Prior knowledge:
Blueprint: H1 2-5, H2 10-13, E1 16-18, E2 39-47, E3 49-50, E4 53-54, E5 56-57, H3 62-65, E6 70-79, E7 86-87, E8 89-90, E9 105-112, H4 115-129, H5 134-139, H6 146-165, H7 175-197, H8 227-240, E10 248-255, E11 271-277, E12 287-294, E13 305-310, E14 318-322, E15 328-332, H9 333-336, E16 341-349, E17 361-365, E18 374-379
Parallel strand pairs: 1-6, 12-18
Antiparallel strand pairs: 2-6, 2-9, 3-4, 5-6, 6-7, 8-11, 9-10, 10-11, 12-15, 13-14, 13-16, 16-17
Amino acid sequence: MKNNIFKRTLALLLALVCIMGVLPLSAFADSGTSSAPASITQQSAVGLRVDGHAVRYPTANETVNHSGLAYVFDAQVNVEGMSTPVRAMCSYHDGFLNPAFNGQKWNYKRELTSPSLKAMLTWVYSSAYGNFTDAGNARGLETWPEGWANLWFVTAQGITWYDEYGVLIDCTTDREGFIRQAAEEMVSVFKMFHDTWNSSPWITDWSSVDIHTIIDSNDNGVTGNSTYDYISTGINLVLDHPEYFHDFHMWEYEWDSSQPWLMGGSPNMQRLLIALPDEETTDLPVRLTVKKLEAGTNTPISGVTFKIESADGSGDFSVTRTTGADGTITLTQEADRIVAGQYKITETAAPAGYTAQAESQVVTVMPGSSASSVFTFYNVPDTVTEGDGSIRKVDADNPTVGIAGAVIRIASVKLDDG
Length: 418
């Protein structure tokens, strides 16, 4: 059975995984597009070879593998309106692709709508190219290095074929099931990378590796992350925080058969899939409000001075302001040139009767959300006035009758983080 898997006809041998070669970050720096380009043009298609041998990729799903193992390719296409080539993926597992077709045209076929595939491609394309919304940049989402991006693109390619074969779990009805399925696919990719580059040398028995095995480590597996850790982090971010990511379209293209067939045999051309962000139509406002209240009474405190500066210490932004009668300071993008990002807020002076808090706080400012851009600080007065009060325990059915012997615990209430 295992030997049979590796025996392929020409068409099956040329099933391709379209990965490798991370594009310049300017690839998606264009304004985006809300409608599918009528056609795309193959710019390049280069097979990955290590020590003279073509790299092939077994997925974690036998339904996909039943038709053969795939070669690993880097396919790039030119798209009208894009300043640089765009990475293309292979949405037809058994399709043919070859550098001889560079310069030929693929015509628009359809838009793919799988929510699971969209979540995966949104995470991978955004992180590989460092293309996030202002909110995502403010959150500190990172751009992947080339090797790490390539591993994720192979994983996403497998998920593309799951969708083609109808075996992809729907994340809208079974998020956990999809995360586990994608994590299993990433295990297979790690195995391929290990076999090719010995990327996880501390793992000696790959047959025992599962989605919770520490598979990416800097100390030979003592600590590190599993494929489940990586997949769940990415998918949950995309699904729980869509404000961090552009809205990606998944458009599939088929080879224009009116063009000359350049190879021997019958054409069985690959269908190419590109994921492009939607055109951005509005700029969300950015604002930061600092609110100062007295602990216990929530009375606004005026005359409190704050220094608000870039959290990274770059000095790109630094403003010192004092709270007004309503106990607030508000900075806006228009008036103060504040942008989405992380800021350090330090209380530098307080009015008589209060002591300025010594510790600074780092906050994250998001665009377009007033609720997440208001940060409240509390001060306890230097002199606390003593008061008195009483507690009476009564019968629930007859409140006029007191109950003797009840033990009541009285504790202070923590009103802030100080």
